[in-house]
Amino acid sequence: MRDLSAGAGLLSINTATVRKQADLLGIVDACARHGIGAISPWRDQVAAVGLDRAARMIRDAGLKLSGYCRGGLFPATGQHVVQARDDNRRAVDEAATLGAPCLILVAGGLPQFARPGSTPSKDLLAARQAIEEGLAELLAYARQARLPLALEPLHPMYAADRAAVNTLAQALDLADRLDPGGSALGVAVDVYHVWWDPELYAGIARAGRARILAYHVSDWLVPTKDLLNDRGMMGDGVIELQRIRMAVEAAGFDGFIEAEIFSERWWAEPIETVQATCVERHRTVV
Amino acid sequence: MRDLSAGAGLLSINTATVRKQADLLGIVDACARHGIGAISPWRDQVAAVGLDRAARMIRDAGLKLSGYCRGGLFPATGQHVVQARDDNRRAVDEAATLGAPCLILVAGGLPQFARPGSTPSKDLLAARQAIEEGLAELLAYARQARLPLALEPLHPMYAADRAAVNTLAQALDLADRLDPGGSALGVAVDVYHVWWDPELYAGIARAGRARILAYHVSDWLVPTKDLLNDRGMMGDGVIELQRIRMAVEAAGFDGFIEAEIFSERWWAEPIETVQATCVERHRTVV
Predict the structure, then answer these.
(1) Chain A nearest C-alpha distance from B167 (Å)
(2) In Å, how far is A225's CA from the nearest CA of chain B?
(3) d(Cα A280, Cα A8) in Å, to the nearest integer?
């Protein structure tokens, strides 16, 4: 298990963590000041400052990338199918331009939520089939761009509206079917989504170094007041962060540890406070 | 698949669904008026009117029981271990007195939430071990009382504070270890908790008639505004109720279909409205 106590070199900040405090330029500046090793930017935050400018400012600040957020949202009907395909291909291209190690994929839930305007359905099994088909198609494109895809299983409470891929085993089954023995399609392990899973440690071991393309941390608060924007700062909740990181590193993962915290509470703090707290928690409890 | 369109004879009302509108007497009366076949009472609602009186009023109204809510909450430390054991034994005795077909068990999460006052811990694996040990001990008692136990896996969003048994497979693994080949320990399948599970249909088939002791319905709303008390009325959400019921009945389940809706929205309606709506949805969308 790696020693994180010395500094923030292995810490990455997912830019959504401070999306309400600053634009991408401000976030990059703050990360550099705090000695943070990497960032994982969101597409809308990159678009707001311009792709080439974003790539340059990140490089000039000496920051690495731990991922690019995000593509996916596959279930769709009618014209939305083609729009989703084209949109996902652009995401791959942007990730390649930025030099990201992978594109994070959120699978999407039922079509009316994944791609609004699509024909409503309650057929979860059909949504999962659409995810597999969309993923297969995008994978062919991403292979050509030599850009790995990291499918992120989301917590089951998001199954309807955000992602119908809800366990690590399910994501790994998809990876094994679409990319047998390969490393073009892997997974993003986010503790917030998977900490509860009775099969978590078996899944991490099964995934191994080849499939674990990203590792995200935050914490589960009790009580959780909002399904979407009440994630905890690392250490403030009940997730056994060190136990999970030990398993992930034992499986061979040696990348950045990315803090991704969607939280009204932390969005209300100054960016300096959030980043300093992420660094301190990274060094002591992650 | 059974035809529910004719009436409410196969419908059971979980008494928590209308807990804010009436006491158990009022709920029993309303169920009888609506031709509802059964109820599943909660311990506190039974205690409020007295156990023997509750048993008599249910019998006199011609209602059956589909379960008794609830025992479990096993993880505990210190004096709370013995208190939990004794409390669970009383629940078994009460269920037997009422003539309930099973006692519903909610496993409990981390000890500080399962049994407040217990020593706080984040060790989810230890909580699961405590659940298995508590369950084994209670099972010995329940066997003597000839009272089946129905372990209910809860949605993963409750893993920390309510139940660290979160999938049907996990509950069935416990049943197979503690009650191999038997029917003293089974499961309660509640669509709200399991609808998202990629292994749901495999789990239902595996459970079969011997293990499925109860079947609960409600619906998953999008958006869900509260983790605890924003369940939907059947048909108002995204759960494929008929597909799941078809699987449960194909596995051999032939018991009551129990409506269990924790909802501030429905608690604000008159009991007549709630029960009439449950009956109508039972006949048309369940």
Answers:
(1) 8
(2) 7
(3) 9
Neighbours of A64 (CB within 10 A): 18
d(C-alpha B109, C-alpha B164), whole Å: 5
Digit-by-digit pLDDT tens for chain A (286 residues) are 999 999 999 999 999 999 999 999 999 999 999 999 999 999 999 999 999 999 999 999 999 999 999 999 999 999 999 999 999 999 999 999 999 999 999 999 999 999 999 999 999 999 999 999 999 999 999 999 999 999 999 999 999 999 999 999 999 999 999 999 888 999 999 999 999 999 999 999 999 999 999 999 999 999 999 999 999 999 999 999 999 999 999 999 999 999 999 999 999 999 999 999 999 999 999 9
CA distance linking residue A56 with residue B135, whole number of Å: 59
- Which tokens in the block code for residue B19? 């807990």
The rounded distance, in Å, linking the Cα atoms of A192 and A217 is 7
Instruction: Find the CB nearest A110 among B113, B161, B238.
Output: B238
Report the chain B residue with the minimal C-alpha distance to residue A235. B122
Q: Could you please report the per-residue DSSP string of A9-75?
A: TTEEEEGGGGTTT--HHHHHHHHHHTT--EEE-BHHHHHHH-HHHHHHHHHHTT-EES-EEEEE---
Which residues does B contribute to its contact with A (CB < 8 Å)?
Answer: 110, 113, 122-124, 128, 155-157, 159-161, 164, 166-167, 169-170, 195-198, 220, 222-224, 227, 237-240
Please choose, from the candidates A100, A80, A98, the residue with its C-alpha nearest in 3D space to the C-alpha of residue A88.
A80
Order of strands across the sheet that contains A64-65: A64-65, A38-40, A11-14, A257-259, A212-217, A185-190, A149-151, A103-106, A68-72
Residues of chain B under the 50 pLDDT cut:
none
Are B157 and A161 a contacting pair at CB < 8 A? Answer: no
Q: How far apart are CA B48 and CA B103, in angstroms?
A: 19
The pLDDT value given to residue A182? 85
Which amino acid, B155? Answer: H
Residue A221 is encoded by which pair of tokens?
């608060």
Q: Is A217 exposed, middle or buried (0-12, 13-18, 19+ CB in 10 A)?
A: buried
Are A187 and A168 in contact by the 8 Å Cβ rule? The answer is: yes
Q: Which domains does chain A have, with CATH numbers?
A: 28-284 (3.20.20.150)
What pTM, to 2 d.p., does this model score?
Answer: 0.98
* CB atoms B156 and A113 under 8 Å: no
- Whether A160 and B222 have beta carbons less than 8 Å apart is answered as yes
Query: How does strand A149-151 pair with strand A64-65?
Result: unpaired
User: What's the CA angle centered on A110, arms A195 and B266, to 5 degrees?
Assistant: 80
Write out chain A residues lying below 8 Å of B159, CB-based: 195-196
Q: Which of B160, B166, B238 sits opposite A160 (nearest CB)?
A: B238
ipTM of this predicted structure: 0.97
Helices B124-144 and B168-178 cross at an angle (nearest 10°) of 50
